Amino acid sequence: MKFRPKPLITSVAGILAAIVLWQLIAVGPAADSPLPPASAVAESLGTVLGTSLFWSDLAATVGIALLGLGTAALAGVVLGILVGSFEPFRYATLAVLEFLKPIPPIVILPLIVLVLGPTGQMSWVLVFFGCVLPIIMQTVDGVHDTDPVARDTARSYGLKEPEILARVVLPSAMPFIGTAMRVAAPAALVITVVAGLLGGGPGLGRSIYQAQAAGDYPTLYALVAVLGVLGLLFQGATRLVEGKLLHWHESFREAAHA
Amino acid sequence: MKTSLPPTRSNSAAPAAPSRKNAMTEEQTPAPAVVAGTAPARLDVSHLAKSYGTGDKAKTIIEDLTFTVAVGEVVCIVGPSGVGKTTLLKCLAGLHPATSGRASIDGRVINGPPPEMALVFQDYNRSLMPWLTVRKNLVLPLRHLHLSAQELKERCDSALAAVGLEHAESQYPWQLSGGMQQRVAIARALAYRPEILIMDEPFASVDAQTRFDLEDLCLKIRRDFNMTILVVTHDIDEAVYLADRVVVLGSKPARVLRIVDIELPTVRDQISTRALPEFARQRTEVLSLIKRPA
After folding, report:
1. Structural domains in chain A?
2. Which end is more exposed in chain B, N or C (fewer Cβ atoms within 10 Å of the end residue's Cβ)?
3. Where are the alpha helices (DSSP H) in A86-119?
4. Contact at 8 Å (CB) between B50 and B61?
5. What does DSSP say about strands B74-78 and B245-250: parallel, antiparallel, or unpaired?
6. Backbone φ and ψ of A128, nearest 5°
7. Where does residue A135 rank: exposed (0-12), middle (13-18), buried (19+ CB within 10 A)?
């Protein structure tokens, strides 16, 4: 990849401008509101970063999000390939999947909290539920996108169905799975935080709730800022992994093989 | 609505008129296990028919095909476009079951992909896996053969050398030109060490110069490996240049109009062979069969 300084400078300038704007609004027209100025948030961010609670919260949030995402990816891809490849399987599951798809994870949160309590396990189940369905659906689409000529080629060389699924269908579906993962990765983070915020699961979400309950708005926004950065990192990491795995795909060829 | 089998096979028996003296008509021979003057049949297609759908909606693609391919022979199948040539190849490759009749290799009926056969598709860019390098594309069909690492390497090396692509082994197919990609597809077939090579319009989407090179490559493969080769093409010049025999198909549904013996020297050359009067004569013979209204 080529390094281009100009866009970098522009985007840094954009970030600085946003922070300055925030500071001006918080000090000026919104001085009476609970919105803390950027300077205060920066200050409490410094304090927060010095506590061990913050780092264990961060580890819990990232850990739960990644675990939920990883298990959802594994289950979603396997199920997606089965549903996409075998007609009876598809007809048996499609209605159920389509029914579950529009249900936001937050709706089933109370139920899961009731069963599992305010635990990491609860957060993980919620993340899994929120991520697995779109991954299944995209994988099914990817399976259907497999070129019939590629399949016929594999069949004509005597490859058996499991090998065709693993070596032809799965790679063909990868671009679709990649797209699903790019959407699911930030979602996993959001759901982990929501599980902490509303369900009392461990991590940054719970700390945000506690800061809010204590009226400690600078700390609240410091944690929100950390989440924002974390979201960017998640997004960047998925793009990086996607680019590595899909370097052969049309949409990545130029960047990877220039 | 068509009946798939008319009481008399008048439509296939009718073509009789032009230049019969050099052509061998086989359409009425029921089951030619041995073609006069050639080795025993390797691939035997006997009254093969293929239709899709059932009852009134049935669409007959192939009506009644009978021909043979002998060991080490190059046979080209020509016919008007849309005649069902690709369907025929899919039946021969065991990808589709025949509706009636049969295709067999050494007497064994084909009912699944035969292990001694390799198929080269027209759409090289769809049949090569874009996520695999050239070498890994060659390795893909060999995995389930459980070869030793040394034999695997040896097969890939020699196949790549045969098509002149040793230098491109670590590139991806989409980084190569169309002609090179089709050579990769051919190399993949060679590495599989088939006894029968079937090619579906293999040179249709490459430029003229590349096409000549690939045709000569095909003849070289036959010479070097004594491979039995069946090529489907719509290009009559190509068919006459490549083949020992040309199976001319008529439409629709597909049936054998005539099987033409090509009487050209075994060693062929793009310039001198195509300049032979015999080449022009046989080319005209095949063309007039195809051009004539069915």
Report:
1. 40-257 (1.10.3720.10)
2. N
3. 87-100, 105-116
4. yes
5. parallel
6. -55, -50
7. buried
Over the stretch B169-204, which tens digit does the pLDDT of each residue have?
Answer: 899 999 998 888 988 998 999 899 888 999 988 888
Contacts for A215-220 with beta carbons within 8 Å, 24 or more apart? A216/A44, A217/A34, A217/A35, A217/A36, A218/A36, A218/A40, A218/A41, A218/A43, A218/A44, A219/A44, A219/A47, A219/A48
Contacts of A206 (CB under 8 A, 6+ apart): A57, A118, A196, A197, A200
Distance between B196 CA and the closest CA of chain A, angstroms = 12
**CA B27 to CA B15: how far, in whole Å?**
10
Give the three-class secondary structure for A150. Answer: helix
Give A254→chain B minimum CA distance, Å.
11
Q: How close, in Å, is residue A249 to chain B by CA atoms?
A: 7
Interface of B with A in 176-205 (CB under 8 A): 192
Cβ A182 vs Cβ A131: under 8 Å: no
Alpha-helical segments (H) within chain A: 5-27, 38-49, 52-85, 87-100, 105-116, 120-144, 148-156, 161-164, 170-199, 204-213, 217-245, 250-257
Q: Determine the Cα–Cα distance for residues B48 and A165; give it in Å rounded to an integer.
A: 31
Q: What is the pLDDT of residue B35?
A: 44
| Ranges of chain B with pLDDT below 70 | 1-40, 292-294
**pLDDT score recorded for residue B124:** 85
Contacts of A157 in chain B (CB under 8 A): 113, 118-119, 140-141, 192
Ranges of chain A with pLDDT below 70? 1-4, 255-258
Locate B252 and state its tokens. 């629709």
Question: What's chain A's length in residues?
Answer: 258
Q: What is the C-alpha separation between A39 and A44, in angstroms, rounded?
A: 9
- Other Cβ atoms less than 10 A from the Cβ of B14: the count is 12
Per residue in A35-69, pLDDT tens? 888 888 999 999 988 898 899 999 999 999 999 99
Residue A226 is predicted with a pLDDT of: 92
Of B115, B117, B127, the CB nearest to A150: B127
